[in-house]
Amino acid sequence: MTTQKIGVAVLGIGSMGGGHVQAFRSSPWVERVVGYEPTAERAKERGQELGIPATTDLESLLHNPQIHLITIASPNDTHCELTLRALRAGKSVLCEKPMGVSLAETQLMLAAERETGRFLQIGFECRYSKLYQMVKDWIGAGLIGQPLNSHCDYLCSEFLLRDSWRSKSPSGLIAEKLCHYLDLPRWWFEQPVVELYSQAAPNFVSYFNYSDNHNILYRFANGATSSLNFVMATAETFHGDPLRDMLDQQWDDGHRLVYLLYGTKGAIETDVFRRRIRRWEFTDKPDKLHSKIVETVTFPSSADELWFHNAPGQNIRISQLVAEGCLPELTATDSYESMKMVFAAELSEREHRIVKLNELD
Length: 361
Ligand SMILES: NC(=O)c1ccc[n+]([C@@H]2O[C@H](COP(=O)([O-])OP(=O)(O)OC[C@H]3O[C@@H](n4cnc5c(N)ncnc54)[C@H](O)[C@@H]3O)[C@@H](O)[C@H]2O)c1
Prior knowledge:
Layout lengths: L5 E6 L3 H11 L4 E7 L3 H11 L3 E2 L2 H5 L6 E4 L6 H10 L3 E4 L7 H14 L3 E3 L7 H11 L6 E10 L16 H17 L3 E7 L13 E8 L4 E8 L14 H4 L5 E8 L2 E6 L4 E9 L4 E10 L5 H5 L2 H13 L8 H20 L3 E2 L5
Parallel strand pairs: 1-2, 1-4, 2-3, 4-5, 5-6, 7-10
Antiparallel strand pairs: 7-11, 8-9, 8-15, 9-10, 11-12, 12-13, 13-14
The site of nicotinamide-adenine-dinucleotide (NAD) has 23 residues, from helix 1.
């Protein structure tokens, strides 16, 4: 049986949308890629830069039988409405994170997926990154025993810019950035999160509509705990997305994106800015618990995208799933659980209290 190639429409062909276009153009399961922008000027400019047809007529894309997959790479507060329209038009949808900017929006997106029965996958692309898949594989192979604790430190320079939609967005950085880093431990630990507490100090960045720092602490159903500490502002200023290149310089100027996971038999550290993943083994000896680094894997700068920013790999895989009529690899229900952590953290900071995740159901 030959698989029919699909047509893809990318809604929002800015920075991330441009990456989507390139990934789909390289996919063997895709035969056409078109773009959508709300204004004619922007559609023309970006269509020409990317070398694709780009339109301002969303309805025509939604009703075009040659378009099978709609991907949404527009500002966060448009994700819900565009997803609902695309699913209800019978399209498969890949929507960039976050899955909505409020709990109500996330629930609407989940309800639309259930009501239409269509394909909906949220762009939690870290799940396709080799660095984080290796953590999953090492835990799955029992190499650290049962995971019981994880810490994530994410420290970076301000890279959203004073006058961008991001710095003025009604939703904050927990939804915009940290949803990835709350989603990963849920995936690794394979446990539901039951409660969460978060705090934010006053801002370093005066022009954000939201906090630029968060200390989030949460507990899983089996008693395991995790924390995520984030500060945007402290590292040396970088004029671009600091996760895309220049890691060699940045690892020592204050940038950090490190996970430490502790299990009953060992530990794992992932370190994006050092391009490294390491593993410790614990041995219970008569004098004390001994710990030894037993495995270190590094990757070259040429493989950065594959190792920790594998949106292209995710998109190509999704085009295959849609072309072959398969279900999403990452379900909307699962992404909803990570988004509940986002909104629980926002609620916890507003009300200065521990939030039980089932309060949000
Ligand atoms: N997965 C990741 O790691 C990752 C990384 C970066 C961005 N993103 C997500 O991708 C999305 C876009 O981010 P970006 O950095 O490309 O922003 P961007 O500002 O570069 O691009 C957004 C584009 O959307 C267009 N747009 C505005 N309103 C629109 C609407 N109503 N419908 C369609 N298009 C519209 C803008 O004109 C612009 O071209 C965001 O949701 C962001 O969170 C994800």
